[in-house]
Design a protein that fits this description.
Helix content is 30%, strand content 22%. The chain has helices at residues 3-10, 28-44, 140-158, 186-189, 236-246, 286-306, 323-326, 331-342, 357-363, 387-406, and strands at residues 47-51, 57-61, 73-78, 93-95, 103-106, 111-113, 129-131, 167-172, 193-199, 204-206, 211-220, 262-270, 274-283, 311-319, 348-349, 370-372, 384-386. Helix 1 crosses helix 3.
Length: 407
């Protein structure tokens, strides 16, 4: 089975995660998909296959050489797709030999994937692209990664002439809601280091990510009949708006790139009596990250000075920049770079403007940089993945295993 065959099969599983269920996995479709993969791994003849009650699936491709001292490497991808858009009834289509023009995803709804709006399409002229029908996301994040790992492991299994040490693989739930690594048993996984196959376009190699926190600011108001409200009403919605405009206007996602951090207002829930603003705070630099959190404390105090005891603040850290855990073992980046070059891929070392399971796993003792899976425009109807990118990601996995054994 090719990587494309697997991918087209996998995207038909509805594995959209849901942060409101407070379960692991957060949705039943993820466990259904995990059981399917478990059976596929058994048919491939892998060892130490385990699927726990939380939806964490692990397996081993045993070493095929007697040479001692070869490190155990892991490859990881996540089962879920984003809650941002439906992953139910995904209907993928292959656009063969893409000609560089606009692609009609859904004629009835006039949904067009256009290089005018998505200029990255022009990088893939002449290649086969897998696209959506415009009604759902595609699920390349991260079913492309799963398909690549499964295909690479199957290839290594069938080609014993390629020497390799023990290889561990894992597929976990709920990455998209930030919980993918929470119940990941690093000790049971027993790898020296790993790679998540969860990056974007071909060549991406990432070992820097945002430091991340979530902040909730709650404003208590007092509702009084508006005709008699003078000096009595406290409108929490208006005070919340006053807080929001006190944050720097240009330090938002739509105005930042590269290593630039931001404040991002992700939800407003409110009435006159009570309003809650929920923000995510992001910065690659740890000191700037801490200053951003201090800014929330400062602005909350400022609001309370004008409106006593109206505002309360909750801040919780989500994950940290894995660079500080990867740099001491930088040879694992060197190996990935070498593997990409051997596969004919130009490495692009870039910072992640987000987070991956690998960031949390790195702080749990499993250094885990991120390698491209090939998809673009994640989390929406305009998501697509070039077929050659998935094929090259598969080759990179094989090359990493070969290089580690050689060293």
């Amino acid at each position: 089975m090719t990587v494309v065959d697997r991918f087209l099969q996998y995207v038909r599983f509805d594995t959209q995660s849901d942060e409101l269920t407070n379960m692991t996995p957060s949705t039943p479709g993820q466990m259904i998909f995990a059981r399917h993969l478990e059976e596929e791994l058994r048919a491939m003849g892998l060892d130490n296959i385990s699927l726990d009650d939380n939806g964490y699936l692990m397996a081993t491709l045993p070493a095929n050489t007697d040479r001692k001292g070869i490190p155990t490497v892991g490859f990881i991808a996540h089962l879920d797709t984003s809650p941002d858009m439906s992953g139910r009834h995904v209907s993928p289509r292959i656009v063969e030999n893409y000609d560089g023009e606009a692609i009609t995803l859904n004629a009835e709804k006039n949904i067009i994937l256009s290089p005018e709006e998505f200029p990255e399409l022009r990088h893939y002229v002449g290649q086969d692209l897998i696209v959506t029908d415009g009604n759902t996301l595609l699920g390349a994040d991260d079913k492309a990664g799963i398909a690549e790992i499964m295909t690479a492991i199957d290839y290594l299994k069938k080609h014993p002439e390629i020497e390799h040490g023990d290889i561990r693989i894992a597929f976990n739930p709920d990455e998209e809601i930030g919980k993918g690594a929470h119940k990941f048993d690093v000790e049971r996984f027993a790898a020296d280091w790993a790679y998540t196959m969860d990056g974007g376009e071909i060549g991406e190699l990432e070992f820097e990510n945002f430091n991340a926190a979530v902040a909730k600011v709650t404003f208590k108001g007092r509702n009084v009949h508006p005709g008699y409200a003078k000096h009595k009403m406290i409108n929490s919605i208006r005070i919340a708006n006053q807080f929001a405009i006190m944050l720097p206007r240009w330090e938002t996602p739509e105005h930042t790139e590269g290593y630039e951090g931001f404040y991002h207002l992700i939800s407003i829930e409110g009435t006159v009596e009570q309003t809650t603003l929920t923000y995510i705070i992001r910065d690659h630099d740890r000191d700037r990250f801490e200053r951003r959190k201090k800014e929330f404390e400062h602005l909350t105090r400022k609001i309370n000075h004008e409106f006593p005891d109206v505002a309360s603040l909750e801040i919780s850290d989500q994950y940290y920049n894995m660079r500080e855990k990867i740099e001491p073992v930088s040879h694992i980046i060197d190996i990935a770079v070498e593997a990409m070059k051997e596969a004919g891929v130009e490495p692009k070392v870039v910072p992640i403007r987000g987070g991956t399971d690998g960031a949390q796993l790195s702080f749990k003792g499993l250094p885990c940089p991120n390698i491209f899976a090939g998809g673009l425009n994640f989390h929406g109807r305009f998501e697509f993945v070039p077929v050659p990118s998935m094929e090259k990601a598969t080759e990179v996995i094989v090359e990493i295993a070969r290089i580690i054994a050689q060293r």
